[in-house]
Each structure stands twice: as C-alpha cells, then as structure tokens.
Amino acid sequence: MPRAGLRVCAVACTGLMLSAQPGAAEIPAETAYVLNSLSFLYHGMLVFFMATGFSMLEGGLVRTKSVSTILLKNVILIAVAMIGFYLVGYNLMFYNVDGGYWGTPRAWSPDQTDALSQGAAPASIWLFQTLFAVTAVSIISGTLAERMRLLPFFVFVAFMSCVLYPVQGAWGWGGGWLAEMGFLDFAGGTHVHSAAGWAALTGAIVLGPRRSRFADSGEVRPMAASSLPLVTLGTMILWLGWLGFNGGSQGSMDSVADVIAIANIYVNTLMATCGGIVATAALLQLLRRKIDLTMVLNGALAGLVSITAGPDTSGIVGALLIGAVGGCLMLWTTHLLLRLRIDDVIGAIPVHLACGIWGTLVVSLHHPEGDIRVQLIGVAAVAVFCVTASVVVWIGLRRFMRLRLSQGEEAIGIDRVETGALAYPEFATRSVLPGD
Amino acid sequence: MPRAGLRVCAVACTGLMLSAQPGAAEIPAETAYVLNSLSFLYHGMLVFFMATGFSMLEGGLVRTKSVSTILLKNVILIAVAMIGFYLVGYNLMFYNVDGGYWGTPRAWSPDQTDALSQGAAPASIWLFQTLFAVTAVSIISGTLAERMRLLPFFVFVAFMSCVLYPVQGAWGWGGGWLAEMGFLDFAGGTHVHSAAGWAALTGAIVLGPRRSRFADSGEVRPMAASSLPLVTLGTMILWLGWLGFNGGSQGSMDSVADVIAIANIYVNTLMATCGGIVATAALLQLLRRKIDLTMVLNGALAGLVSITAGPDTSGIVGALLIGAVGGCLMLWTTHLLLRLRIDDVIGAIPVHLACGIWGTLVVSLHHPEGDIRVQLIGVAAVAVFCVTASVVVWIGLRRFMRLRLSQGEEAIGIDRVETGALAYPEFATRSVLPGD
Amino acid sequence: MPRAGLRVCAVACTGLMLSAQPGAAEIPAETAYVLNSLSFLYHGMLVFFMATGFSMLEGGLVRTKSVSTILLKNVILIAVAMIGFYLVGYNLMFYNVDGGYWGTPRAWSPDQTDALSQGAAPASIWLFQTLFAVTAVSIISGTLAERMRLLPFFVFVAFMSCVLYPVQGAWGWGGGWLAEMGFLDFAGGTHVHSAAGWAALTGAIVLGPRRSRFADSGEVRPMAASSLPLVTLGTMILWLGWLGFNGGSQGSMDSVADVIAIANIYVNTLMATCGGIVATAALLQLLRRKIDLTMVLNGALAGLVSITAGPDTSGIVGALLIGAVGGCLMLWTTHLLLRLRIDDVIGAIPVHLACGIWGTLVVSLHHPEGDIRVQLIGVAAVAVFCVTASVVVWIGLRRFMRLRLSQGEEAIGIDRVETGALAYPEFATRSVLPGD
C-alpha cells in the first residue's frame, strides 16, 4: 500500500520512469501497464472480499439478537466509506502526489496526454486505495456492536473515511512527513490497523460496555457468539483477502523483481498466520486445557495484522515468529481489556491495535532500512492523532445525538430496534434473560 | 459480454486483426492472447462464484422448511444449464459469429490453423459465455421457490439455456438485428437480467403465490427469511462476482485502453452498488423508521443490475445516481408486486427485471452512441419474446406435469417432499402453523 | 501439479529453457516469468480457498455438538501442514529436482545468479506445492470427525505433511520412479486424493465408528448433518477452488499453448462436475424417489476428483462421462462402506479414494501416452505405501496416546470436551438422546 502510494508519488512527483525499476526494463511499457493494472484489480478484488469476511466474522460473534444490525452496518459502511473517500478522502490523502481537490482524483482528468506514464490504470489505483479505506472502517464496527445506534455510527464512518484515515495515511503513504523520515509500513500495520484500532478503543470507552457485560463484582459475564461457523468463514475469507491486501501493496507487477516480491509476500503472509494459530492454540492448551475456536481464529488474524507492516522483508521464519508473538500479544490484550472493563465485542482492539503496533515496531529488526526510533515516532504520531480526533468526534456526536440504545432497547436487542427483523426468525433461541 | 461476442464477431466475420485496436499494437500478439484468455478465465471464475452467491441468497431468503430444495435447485441448474448451453445454446447464440451446429462450438475444431487470430483461448470465451447462461438461469429459481416441483423447474432450465437465453442473446450479442441497430447492452442488463426477469415473472403468475401468502382480505402475510447471514453472504458474493461479470465483458485485456476500461468498469460497478445501498437505506429510514436488512441487500443488487447495461460509460457520479434510482425502483416494484398479489419469494423481479430495464434505457443518456428509441426497441423485443416463450412453456409444462406442490405438501414443506432432508434437522424451529 | 513439478524438474535438471516450449518463444522471458508466477499465485489463491471449502463442508456435515472442533481442526491443520511441509516435506518431495535438505528450499537461496532460468518466482512455486499438501491433509479430517481427539490428529497431520504426502508425491511429481515409468496424474487424482483417501480409510478402521452409528442388528442409525447451507457453501467453494487446483497444475502460463490448455482444463473441470451432479441426482431419483442434497453435493465432488488426474486431455464429453461414472461410483462406495460398518462422517472415502482411483485409471483411455498398466502400478504403489505407513502411524499413535473420546465424552459431544464452546450456543437443538 505504501508502495502503491509511493509508486504514484514516484511517477507523478519525481518523474521517474517505470523502466528505472530493476528488471522492468525488459518488459515493454504497454505490457507493464496492463500487468500493473491487473495487479491492482486482482488484488483489489481480494481486498474487497475482506468486507465479506468482516461481515461474517462480526455477524457470527455477536448474539443472535444483534446479528441483523451488525450485518446491515457492514454493508452500509462500504457505501458510506467509498463515497466519502471518493468525495474527500482520496484527494486529502494523496494531495502531495496527485494534486486536485475533493471529488477530482486528478488521475481521471481527461487531459492526461500520456497515460503510460502513470504506470497503471488510474481507476485501478483508486480502487485499491479506496478498498483500504473500506477495510479500515470495517474494523471498528465489531467493537461497538450490540449497543451503538446506526446513525451516529455512520457519521463516524463518514468522518473516518473523509478525514481520520486519509490524514494519517497521507503522512506515510501520501508523500508526507513520516514518509520523508523513512517510516516503514508496507501494507498498513499502522496506517490501517492500529489507526482503526485506536478509533475502536476510544469508541468503546466513550460508549461504555454492553449492560450486564461486567457485574458489579468485577466478574465478566460470558456473552456467547451466535455462530462459530460464520466466525470461521469470516476469518478464512479475511485470510484469503489478506493475500491481496499485502500482495497488492507491492504496487507493481511488471518485473521479475516485483513478482518475486509478491510471491514472497504471499508466503510470508500465510506463514505469519500459521504462527499466530499455533502459538494461540498452544498457549490455550497450556493455560486452559481447552482450545477455544474463537481465540484461535483471532490468533490467525493477529498473525495477519502482525505481518502487515513488513511482509516483504520478514523472511519465512521471521514471519512465523512475528505471527506467533502477535498471537500471544492478542491473548494478553484480550485479558487486559476485560480487566479494564472495556467491552470489545469481537476483539478488534487486541487484534488490530496491539498487533498493528507490534508488527510496525518489529519491522525495524528485519528491514534493512528499519529504524526503531522512526517506527516509534510513526506509531506514536498516529496514536496521538487518532485518539484525539476520535475522542473529539465521539464526544461531539454524543452531544448531538444519542449514541447508544436505552436499557430497554438493549435488553430486547438492537435488531428489533434498528432493523425490525431478527436474523434467524424461525429458530428457537435460548430464553432471553433480563440482562442478556 | 456483448463485447465478448463482438470480439469473436470482429475476428471471425470481418477479419479485423486484434492489433487494430487502440494501443494493442504495442503488445505482441502472443502476450495479448495470454492476457485476453486470462481475462476470460479470471473474470469467468468470478462469474462462476456468483452461482454460490445466488445459492446462499436464495437459501437464506426462503423459510427453513424449503432451504434444502432451493439449494439443490441451484446446484443442479448449473449442470443442466451448462450441458444445455454446450449442446444447443452456444451455437444458437453465436451462429452468425462462430458457425457450426449444436455440440460443436467451431472454436474448438482442430482445423484452426491460426490460433492467434482468435485473440483468446476458445475455451475461455466459451467458459465466460456459458457462465452468463448459468447466471441468467440462476435468477429465476428464487422467485418460484417453496412451491414449484423440481422436475418441471429443470425442464424450464433446459429450455431457457437451450433456447430462450440464446435466441434473444443472439439478437444483441451474436451479431443479430439488435446489434445491427446499435442496441447497447454492455454486460446484460437486458439480455441476462430483464430476460430472466420476464421468465421469472411469467412463472410466478402461472404458478401462483404460495398458499396463505395473501389473505382473502388482501393482507400480505409475512414469511420470514430463514437466515439473514446467508442472505448477506450471498449478496456480498454476488457483488464480488459482478466485478467479473461486468469487467470481463470488456472482452479483451490486451491494451492500455482495455485495462483502463476494465478498471473504470470495476469502479463504476462498485459505485452503483453504493448508490443502491444508500438510496434504499435512506428511503426505508424515511418511510418506515426501520432499515430492513433484506431490502438494503436487494438495494445493493438493484444497483448492480442497474449499471450492468453500461458500466463502461456511466462515469462515477453517473453510476452512483443510476444505482440510487435502481434502489428506489426496486422498493417501488416490490410494493407493486405485493399489491398485484404476485409472490416473488426473493425479490428477483424488482431487482433483475425492473432494474435491468431501467439500466438499459438510461444507457442512452450516458453512452455517446446511445439512442433511447433503439434501447426501447431492444427492451421491448426481448420482453415480447421472453414473455411469449415463457408463457407457452410454462403452460405447456402445466399440461404435462404437475408444476406445484399440493396444499398438504406445501404445508409440510418442499424439503420433506422433494429431498427428504431438512436443512437444519437438529435445530428447533418455531412450531409450524397450518398455513405456514 | 505434476506439470508444476516437472517444470521445476525440466528447468533445474535438464537445463531446458522455457523458450523450448511451443509458442513460448514469442513471449519475452521477463514477461513469461511474470505470467508464470501470476499463474501460481492466482491459482494458488484459489487452492487456498479450498481450505475454507473443506471447513464449511465438514462443519455442515457433522452434528451440532461437533461443529466447533471440526472447524478448529481445519484451521489448525493448515498451520501444521504448512510448517511441516516447509521444514521437511517440500525438500523430501523435490529432492531430485531442487536439491537441498529440510528447511532450505534451494529455490530461495540467495546465490541464484539467474532468476529467469527458474521460469517463475520460487516462492510462488513453493506456495502452490504447499497448498496441495494442505489440501491432501484437509481431506482426512472429516472422515474421522466427532470422535477423534485433537492431539493425535495433529500428530498425524504432521506425519502426513512431512512424510506420507511428500514421499509418494516424489515418485510421480518429484522426478521419481513413477515419473520415469510414465505414470500420468495431472493434478493429483492419485497423489493427492487417493493418497489422502487411503489415510482416511485406515484411520476410520483403526479408530472405529462413532458409538451408536451401527446398531448390533446391523442397522445404520442416521446422523443428520447440522447445516445443509454450510455443506452447499463448502462444496461450491471447493468447486471454485478446483479451477485453481487443476488449472494451476498446468505449471506455466507463458504461451498460447499453455493458456489454451488452462482454458480447456477449466471447462473440463466444470463439465466433469456437471456429470457428477446429473448422474447422482438421476440415480437417486430412480432408486429412492427423493434427491438427497448431501449426496448430490458429494456427486459434484466425485466429478471433480474423477477429472483431476486428467483434465487436460479428457475432452468435454469425456469429462462429462468421467464425472458421471464418478458420481455413480461414489454412491456405490458410500453404500459399501455402510455395509462394511466403516464410519466416514463426511463421505471422503467414496469421493476422494474411489474417484481418485477411477480418474487415474481412466486417464489411460483418453491420454495419448496413457498406459493402463502403468496407471495401475502407480495406483497400487501409492495404495500399498499409504495404507502401510498410515496403519503403522495410526497404531503407533494408539499405543502412546488415546486416539478417541470415551463413551461419555462422545455422548456429550466433542465440542464440550475439546474446545469448551458449542458452535451455536444460543440455539435450541433437539434433545440429545443417550446415544446421539
């Protein structure tokens, strides 16, 4: 992703020709253009599939009385985020690179006399970038599930796709100050995952936990996932889509060097997930003698997020270790959140925030140009910005509209309140307890 | 899709070389051949995934006692349609282009001395065309669900893939009279979606509604969808697959111009869906204060169908508006069908028929060569043909075999009658009421 | 797949240049390298999706009290198999081709002075091979579901990915003795499907059936699948992924001849599935007057397995017939297993073992170089090796750890025992009978 941005940057700002890349000289410019565009389209398709993955994951993790609404949120947020990113976000994020103001990605303007110099079809680049914005926004919906009303959620989605995601994204990927410092975030460990994680964390704190989630005694009341097959399906779709997320972030596929890099990225992405799975399962077996499926699936996602900042340089064994540490970190953060009485319905904060930070910092160990201080500055800057902006917006929203359901509404379930239709209307479900 | 046909046409009929296309001159013919074939294979894979989408969508929208059968129909219809289209349909549809009689797509005959002149692997072209036929047939199964017996349904599927779809498809895509008039239907707003919609509508009328769907008082009895997560999954898979449906219809991927077109098609297809989603959700919020998930998902599909006739020339904002109007039109048509007491179980008629027509007509506004009279003629001709042929076949079938379940069979549910196995045998479902 | 291996072989062993292939001379080496790598990455992505398909298929076919565990097994086995194949299996399988010892696929070693001579990115080749190992291992989990404990299962998975799959795979695909004899197995009818089928069969025999599956009277007690939509979803995803499994096994995509072959493989793969579906459905209608959805889906998979050994040369009509015979064979083998009181929960033995053998033998009829004796020798050698090795390991495992649940554990269900969480905790399911 950064490479996608940088590629646009390299072409538009500095006038470097594509042929200056290693190996690219041999592939004719027209063929290269088609191959680069195909990479964005094909990998973009995989990233788009991640939206399905998030929907299934979140739909499976909430209780049966909240499934319709979380699915509805995940569908509508795609539309809101795409439109917002088209109108405002894209130009804000790539102003340094692409010029133009809102609603006018310069890439499409008809006065492009030399299409070839862009290296890839402008709409394919835009598509890939937009789907990253959609992914970032998808991360927060699950954390706030079962209690947050639809309208304020969509207002936050619009803010995030128009401002929050693009501004911090511009720092690293739009030719901004983090890029100049040498901050490394290959496919969004920080710019997508921890950025969205901070927004989710502040949202969860401002919103408060689901009623009856935490007893006054401090005890955590279990709230079971409605459908583990859906959770598994969603996670496996995300795993698949992540090949596009990381692979497409190479930004070009027009040389031997590029395609070697993409293949390594695929393998490292898969291997980090394996690390997350094995570490989580082993730890659960040791600590609890039962291997909880939901936690192992979050371990897979933890591995994926952990490798996202550097799937190009980790190496296979490195990827395995990075993913394994990510899995352990996810388990510990899950525990920590419960102790802090922060209610993250699907575990997005342990997965995306904690592992996004971990993966970004560890890049300094395996990337030849990695610098732990720069990585720390980048992580911290994004944290400060996202926390501040999110808190302001969440609290601002709370002044003007009701953010969450009333106690009575929460008891009968958000589906009856917001959508009027249960997800499984014909099925008999366990008698709904007062606080359930 | 038309382009796919036209490409074959251009090569086979007029002898134009691929290199005559803009920009294509620069890519060597062998590389172009591989890229074109890859486009059909990759986009065809996405179109094939739509069959999974239809299965999940329809399986989620019927009641629990009808789920197995609708899944079975959707699996078997793929086989029937592919075999039918292979034996009869393909040659009928592309006779002007490809020559040959049934069972012998000329493209495969071994006397092709110059493979390169075909521009793409013949089997890849055939694959893409065949999967369009499968898609067309998939559309009608849901409308007729819960009451139509298996055998007559498959006879209609065979008729549709052998005759109904290919004949009207030949008019526009096989070098027929609509093509000569300049009728524009890029990826099948008319030739796939409204054609199938007409077949579904006539089927729904001939078959009659599910018993107890409409009370004598005119009241509509709600019949809840069995699983909204399945409906959401199916819709999102269809959305994904539609990138291949529209993108692959560009027909070639061997030039800068082609890949720019494909990228624009992807973006416009996504944007039209966003328009359909937002318009439907907003309208529901205004009219009913609840946002029904099923309707929003049909809004997404309405946006997709609406853009299908012209995703190449709509522009982003145009796509958004076309999709938004499609969403509203779908809601209105859904309402209209209920008033007319026509029972369309999954809403295929509002989505595919109404929006297929709308999308085809609006092409005249955004396509440089669009002509509203020609578009109207095409829409009307397909309507007359499909309605006539469908009515004849439906009524003919009714003479020779029982089309629908008896009252008793319908009460116990089609799954027990046709497949002998419920979809969720271990789950307790709400006590089945006499007329339910 | 063999072609993938052979390609590596051809390049690494004999020094043949890629340009020696028909048509490849015209595509420049760098472009060819990108296209070949893309083929492995894209088709590998599809093969990876098959893991999701197996998970859904198996999760839908077991009873509700065993769903979490089978999903957990399917997720963790990916990690175990990938790591095992990386550390040991890959080098064992391709020692003749690639040299190197465990953990060091030579392809990645940095002293490769001439990347181009490899024909494709080494990691992309490794990815494709590894995902075949994952597929092979995925096949056995379902057969042993509902009664086998997690730990011994994963030990067997490690053995299979490290030794069992690579050793017999090396005979045919790693330049071994079967390859030298001219044994034909294009994408793994024997090396993947029947090999895994033998492991599943021996496991099912050593482990014994689920308690109460077979009454003392010999009667078979039906044990219903928990969710037919999941089974359908899984099967359709497998169908989709199989395009990559067979298509990617062509091994290269850098010439007109290659892409024609890949397109034919796609079409034949689809057609064989259609044959399996239609034959199974017709036979069920004739024999039982009800068309069981589960059996039709297994018929689709039977068609897919049947064509896997020769999708390149079967021809369309041949594919249809091969798939149809496969469907019938699957039905008959299912019946046979029940009579033999072998409990295969998901029907993997009828699908993968029986049809894997059938498809491998029939290659001798349609492949120009096919020889029934060589095919028989290959099938028999793999059978003897896999049965022997599996029996030794299964029985060895039984000495050192408890393979299966106790009677009480099996009654309450494996999910409560191994994962501690039911898959559908909120849903009311039919009262669990003592032996159920």
TrEMBL record, chains A, B, C:
* Alphabetical keyword list: Ammonia transport, Membrane, Signal, Transmembrane, Transmembrane helix, Transport
- Gene Ontology biological process terms, A to Z: ammonium homeostasis
Residues crossing the lipid bilayer are: 41-62, 74-95, 115-138, 150-171, 191-208, 228-245, 265-284, 291-310, 316-338, 345-366, 372-397
- Membrane topology qualifier: Multi-pass membrane protein
Q: Which residues form the signal peptide?
A: 1-24
Q: Which PROSITE patterns match?
A: AMMONIUM_TRANSP
Q: List GO molecular-function terms, semicolon-separated.
A: ammonium channel activity
Localization per Swiss-Prot or TrEMBL: Membrane
Q: Name one Pfam family in it.
A: Ammonium_transp
Domain Ammonium transporter AmtB-like: where? 41-424
Return the GO cellular component terms, semicolon-separated.
Answer: membrane
Instruction: Check the record and name the PANTHER family matching this protein.
Output: AMMONIUM TRANSPORTER, AMMONIUM TRANSPORTER SLL1017-RELATED
Protein name as catalogued: Ammonium transporter
